[in-house]
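# nightly structure sweep
# worker-07 picked up a monomer target from the shared queue
# config: single-sequence mode, recycle default, output format = structure tokens
# input follows
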Amino acid sequence: QVQLVESGGGLVQAGGSLRLSCVASGRTISTYGMAWFRQAPGKERDFVADINWRNGTTYSTDSVKARFTISRHNAKNTVYLEMNSLKPEDTAVYYCAARSRTGVVTTTLYDYWGQGTQVTVSS
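# output follows
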């Protein structure tokens, strides 16, 4: 089992920045990659960015690629999401997720999920 705990969400004005953190604990040796998803009220949970835990390769959705950066600190078992130039449409609950295999990036690829952290961007 892997436990994930997110932090760093909050209220920010449009154009501002936030950095989310996700600390993994438990059987982290099985972790192949970690990712961030987000879910706005009444909408599906959408993929934001993924990072290969072993070699650092990243992949992110086009809508955030120029503004968000995913990174990791292996020794701290922590993954980050640096979010810049935030827009009101970025408002959502952001979830951290971990996977133990490769595959197509969908919610079903990820075995473990955090509880989520709220990000609210005001206009």
